[in-house]
Amino acid sequence: MKVENLVHIIGAEFYTGVPDSQLKSLCNYLMNTYGIDPQHHIIAANEGNCAALAAGYHLATGKIPVVYMQNSGEGNIINPVASLLSDKVYAIPTVFIVGWRGEPGVHDEPQHIYQGEITLKLLKDMDIETFVISKETPENEVKIAMSNFRKKLYLGKDVAFIIRKGALSYDGNVEYRNSNKMLREDIIRHIAKISNEDPVICTTGKASRELFEIREANNQNHQYDFLTVGAMGHSSSIALGVAVNKPDTKVWCIDGDGAALMHMGAMAVIGSNSPKNMIHVIINNGAHETVGGMPTVASNIDFVHIATACGYPHAVCVDSFAELDAELIAAKWRNDLSLIEVKCSIGSRGNLGRPTTTALENKNNFMRYLCE
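Request: output the structure for the sequence above.
Response:
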């Protein structure tokens, strides 16, 4: 169905969410209609953040908010749904729109398979009534579902529309870009060259896909890399766990701005522990580029000052390959925790592939390499 029709049927005035490729039509519609407008549309750091924003909106207006997200974000909403929104606590009615990645019977990437299996169960366990929308769902059925939902919302309960692949369409288009010059794949290529045979923990999305293909092109072994294909926002914590237990090994983390924002508290923990053998690289294009390019707030914040405030002894920002190489080399030979923020353009190759090894093979190869 056309996304404009779904929005009209829901009839809400405020949307907050974390972008998802399955919900690209909705995201583009909201960007074209509202942009980033605190009274109508906010792209949040993580899905729990969205649920809390929705609660604040309802408390201030008495109106019903909408939270959109990929099903991978269900874990992030469990606490605020169960202890804040629930009709057994504050009874704050919210409409969720959830992109169903890894739906059983639909081919998807390995990180989505189990999450796809438990998507409806998790929502049921949180007492969130659901209605699934597919390409074939008649618009009248969606209207009936929303009419039934309104009765639940009136009682302070939460409800969810589950969006199957290709279920929503939008004729409008949004072009996402910035003024930065360096491509992410080229940045990762420079990191891979200078890190050499040091272990690398890489964030989810296109960054891991690009690192895998760079190793292939260089005829390098993939044992050096742990590709965090899921668990967005947690790569730096994984890297910390590796670094403190392998103190004589230089450990690199390739992070993204959206991922770093999603669980920014990790930076405080990293800075507090300050492992001397860890290098944290945040590639910042100010966008959720892997899922379509919708903006993050990273263009308006200063990761260098944040890292310094969190206790990182060295933190810099670079926007050229000459600066990047100089800082990568300095960090490699420095016996101290380092953060390098790299300003990056939006975009990637259209023919970018995906890892050909399984997640389990990746883990086993990486662990064997760490134990050599």
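Residues 110-125 form the longest helix (16 residues).
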